[in-house]
Amino acid sequence: MPVADYATYCRMLDNARANKFAYPAINITSSSTINAALAAFSEAKSDGILQVSTGGGEFASGQGVKDMAFGAIALAEFIHRVAERHPHYVAIHTDHCPADKIDKFMRPLLAETRRRRAAGLPNLFSSHMFDGSELPLGENMKVARELLQECAELDIILEVEAGVVGGEEDGVNNEHAPASKLYTTPEDMVAVARALREVKGGRYMFAATFGNVHGVYKPGNVKLKPTILRDGQQAVAREFGEAARFDLVFHGGSGSELSEIHETLEYGVVKMNIDTDTQYTYTRPIADHMLKNYDGVLKIDGEVGNKKQYDPRSYLKAAEKSMQARVKQACADLRSTGTSLFKR
Fold this sequence. Notes:
Layout: H1 6-19, E1 23-27, H2 31-44, E2 48-53, H3 54-60, H4 68-83, E3 90-98, H5 102-118, E4 127-131, H6 137-153, E5 157-162, E6 167-169, E7 172-174, H7 186-196, E8 204-208, H8 227-240, E9 248-250, H9 258-266, E10 269-274, H10 276-292, H11 294-297, H12 307-310, H13 312-333
Parallel strand pairs: 1-2, 1-10, 2-3, 3-4, 4-5, 5-8, 9-10
Antiparallel strand pairs: 6-7
Helix pairs in contact: 2-4, 2-13, 3-4, 4-5, 6-7, 7-8, 10-13
């Protein structure tokens, strides 16, 4: 059962909280990127999370289809098949579904889960993310409660967000968001806990913002304030007790100092999204291949080129290896190396 069922996923998150590490959550868009991430988790002896965004799902469905839910389902089915060959657990997550895409993305996926369960099949997805950060907090939590209830009935964990992650990622553009929106307050965190703890049996993760920015930045250019997570967790514990502390998610981590990443683990971060860095490390060897083999890749002046050099496998293998190395590094950075619960 390498794709984690609900009980196993809960054990994974509890293990991360108790031992102060986080799982790399790797955005995937193809069989190639899936294989790169799974191989890295195997090498690191780490469980992990693979996640697909609305844009990733649309891309995977094909340019002639462009159906984000359909593509996400196809990727999840592929993961279930190939994960069986890997000695670790993996959770399958959907990333950043804004309110205006719920009916095109999350609800069709929930409907697919109901269909599968009625047929005696396991869930395709382990968790979904509702990103209501553009809504007023009260409205955000109203929608989140409704979705959490649906997810709880289907043994699915919900991820929610309050506050805005700056920059741009996969069509979600917050490049001009005011600085105040980049930092979730302790009062906001208490309000989230109050709203979602009312849902019986619902388990959720919370992406609080503490200066996070999507995109590529040199180390030191992102002005994070990890103590926001500490202060918010303390406020929630004072209000509702220690058991109410959040399973936190770190978005927009590119360019973060390793010391800041480690500090967030002390405050309850159990999942860190990684996309920008793996996109670059996947593409870099392809660019290198094309530049070094320009005359072999292109048919120049009536010639036929070199099939060994323009065969996509020749450069996609290098791309996978490069991405694999970056995901393995993420496991080390997040201290998940050697923590797999598989067969324990």
